Amino acid sequence: MWSSEPVPFDPMEKTLHRVYEQTQQSDKRREYLMFHEYPLEGKPPMMTHLFENKQKERIIAAKGAPEAILNVCTLPEQEKERIRVLIREFGLQGYRVLGVAGTDFKGEDFPKRQQEFEFGFIGLVVFYDPPKKGIDEVFRQVYDAGIKVKVITGDNADTTKSIAQQAGIVNTAEIADGKELIKYTEEQLMRAAEKKGLVYPDVPRSEISRCECTEKTR
């Protein structure tokens, strides 16, 4: 919760605040003020918030894509691999997963980049937002009308594939990766857009190219 905005507007962050209220005996949010922050950035992305109370006690918390959090945490590689297995298992079930970390940094000379903190791994936060009831029938009608459906997402590929299948979206077996797509020629991009149902963009250029390509194949 501490890595979320103090006054949340994102549905996921609102959920984190609500769970905090329901599970904590003592609500410390009014005791701490956020005095420094690192906005969501990086590939994969993460964000970090720094709070302090009147006694100069600090809470420094980060959250983001699980791999981003694992990259900045001081964990043995064997432990990281164990966590990656859990992340994949959650993703295949359609869960959205965030990694959470913290640090006890004491100084005033904050690093330029949040990735330079020495973080300790706290855990994973798992969300489930199922497809709306009846959405599979909507997609069936879309397909019956001869309309092709493509999913472009920045979320975890396993999670997206699971949710797409639950929603009735077909052709989810092959996923186009942005890192590969930027290497394609125009002709290869058009073939990929025709063949693949899910697109997992990883760089802005690939996302733009794929959108243009998909328009041409309609």
UniProtKB/TrEMBL annotation:
InterPro entries: ATPase_P-typ_cyto_dom_N, HAD-like_sf, HAD_sf. It comes from the Eukaryota. Pfam families: Cation_ATPase. Its main location: membrane. Gene3D superfamilies: Calcium-transporting ATPase, cytoplasmic domain N, HAD superfamily/HAD-like. It is a multi-pass membrane protein. This is IC domain protein, HAD ATPase, P-type family. It comes from Ancylostoma ceylanicum. The lineage of its organism: Eukaryota, Metazoa, Ecdysozoa, Nematoda, Chromadorea.
